Amino acid sequence: MLMEPLDFSNVAAALGETAFCVDRAPFNRYLAGGTFEPLAAFFRAEGAERTYRSGEEFARQGVRNRTCGLLLAGAFRYVHLTADGERRIVGYAFAGEFVGDYISHCNGIPSWVSIEAMCDSRVTEVGTAVLETFYAADAAHERLGRRLAEHLLAEVYERLLERCAATPQERYERLLTRCPGVLDFIPLHELASYLGVRPETLSRIRRRIR
Fold it and tell me: In whole angstroms, what is the distance from residue 32 CA to residue 117 CA?
């Protein structure tokens, strides 16, 4: 299931922000342009703004994530730490997107990931109870929450299919197609982890397709 890419420069302009990596998106495709503006407006009106310094955690693996946010400026990485200490990059969030562990937030379970600021980042954030009140306010808000869940599912499902049905080179080339400057803001070893390959494998792929 493919989503139309979002022009994040328009989101940044709407927010009045000069946002990190904003001109290099789209990286995540589930956030369709305009679809979630009522939710973004709610975050801007009701959320508490906070600055996360580079390396600071928005959420921690093993701890319930009780807040979610709208990323005004900056970027976050989603990291899962395995039992043997390996850091696996499982996702990113950039300016104009929502940030948080959706499953932990909604289901009240410990997070499977830590969410780390890649640079100094500004977020307007709300807690679980406040967000649930927004969704329960009327049918339109309830549909908005359901649509967000559907888009997140589509993103995850597409990544699952790609992991099973596409070669590492095909996954890399598809990412480059929608986000040509990806290595301008994500280190190669992190991108390799995100794609599920070793850094040396990604280096060979890059040499092969140049």
Answer: 23
The two three-digit tokens of residue 28, written as one number: 């995540």
DSSP the chain: --PPPP-HHHHHHHHT---TTGGG--S--SS-TTTTHHHHHHHHHHPEEEEE-TT-EEE-TTSB--EEEEEEESEEEEEEE-TTS-EEEEEEEETTSEES-HHHHHH--B-SSEEEESSSEEEEEEEHHHHHHHHHS-HHHHHHHHHHHHHHHHHHHHHHHHHHHS-HHHHHHHHHHH-TTGGGTS-HHHHHHHHTS-HHHHHHHHHHH-
> 154-187: per-residue pLDDT in tens?
888 988 999 999 999 999 998 888 888 888 889 9
Give pLDDT tens digits for 4-32. Answer: 333 333 333 433 433 444 444 467 766 54
Structure tokens at 18: 């000069």
